[in-house]
Amino acid sequence: MDAYAQHVKHPRYGKRPRITGVDPDPDASIVHLHWNTRFLTESRLRLIEQALGWRPALPEDGSRMVRGTAVAADLARQTPATIPVTHYYDIDRICRACGRRFIFFADEQKYWYEELGFPLEADAIRCPPCRQRLRHIASLRERYEQLFHVPARSVAETLEMADCCLTLIEEAIFHFGQLERVRMLLHRIPESGRSDKLYLNLIARLPLVAKLSNHGRVP
Fold it and tell me: pTM here?
């Protein structure tokens, strides 16, 4: 288990495989493993080719199935698919964003495909923190767009918009040229609002981000 000491920790399932002791025979006619296991025997490949009309070529991306971690699927709860999945396995893989190893847990897959209704084609290519970061960035962009179209923003809304904009610059989503917009927004804050904690936070962050720009770190 020491091999998983450096893996990214999942907030619910941890960082190490969840051993169930279950290892179904992949050649059994009633067993269909998810393609993310990368565990396809020749006979199974032929069956998939007959069903789809083509033979899948799975990329070598460092993913590996962890034996003994299978969890039985409930086919009635899956989104209908050409080839349903009867068992999920813990998948040890590399995050496409940060390069760290993490586990896409069988129990997590069961939740995705049977509770959330995700199609079986959906896959976790990023670790939990990177997925959370992407969701946060998406929500910031959405909020920024909402505030951008508010005709008469309040002081609180103006500060929130400046915060969204500066954070998106820090995350290399917006170009450093947007720093001028942040300055413009802060310039509009009246004296009565310049003791606000968010205003002071933005004033402190602004020169640090500008310094990155001057050192050539351009998104």
Answer: 0.77
